[in-house]
Amino acid sequence: MDSENKPARINLKEPKWDQSTYLGRAFHFFTVTNPVNLLLSSKQLDDAKELLQKYSEYKEPAGTTEEQLWNAKYRYDSAFHPDTKEKMTLIGRMSAQVPMNMTITGCMLTFYRTTPAVLFWQWINQSFNAIVNYTNRSGDSPIPVNTLLASYLMATGGAVSTALVLNSQVKKLPKIVGRYVPFAAVAAANCINIPMMRQREIQNGIPVFDVNGNRLGDSKIAAKYSIFQVVVSRIGMALPGMAIPPLLMVRLENSSFLKRFPVMNAPIQVGLVGLCLVFATPLCCALFPQKSSLSVGALEPGLRKRIREIDVDIERVYFNKGL
Fold it and tell me: Which of 98, 212, 240, 294 has the most CB atoms less than 10 A away?
């Protein structure tokens, strides 16, 4: 068969949808964060990885369809780190965000009145966040154990302190105000946990590439830019699930149903949070491109000079911002 008659090869290194548009990124993340991905077995994930590898080597099985290739890509993307290529911890994957966060957040919103409850659920939440932040870090450098521990302790301490201080201040305010204390604690913790967990990136930089994927060096400025975007996305991700259910629960708690079945308070709250997170998780992940970029002029002088020496025509560098 003549080369001009052969079907065009699919670029499986890039998402299926246009990542320069918000809608394209939203479709991409609805697929990546789909909780159904958690049900995939190790064999299914390894088979997806193998098919992608064979396709990149022009050795895919005869009759392989475009649909099978895209399905394999999104199975792979849901479970393997884009930089290290390692299979990620199950609960650290973005596909675990909805089931894990709906349970933890629902319980934080339900059990927020007593100090022991605040301590317990903020500890659970920051333990989960530490796993997620480590799993979805940018770059391929290992994070030292002392950095992990310091980040975990500071974020947990920040979240608990924020919650306890605010709880003590809102006792005389309307009941609805107290329901938003968990969100304030989560926002404060994200501002501590993510930069702390990724401080090695701030100190050493993250890999930056040209448009063809050739590594050009490491940039601290790109690292700070990435971390800021992730903090904003995470806070936005938490906002709907921690802002909308409290308004609904105030009304429901006055209904005859919850007065008759108070045990249903937590399950209803968890369900409402889950409904919000199904949409908030992918839509907030999509706020910024996963493959972020900066102009060469915005980089460190030393790196900028090195890139100019490699190719004066390079105008932008690209990097994985993490999630």
Answer: 98
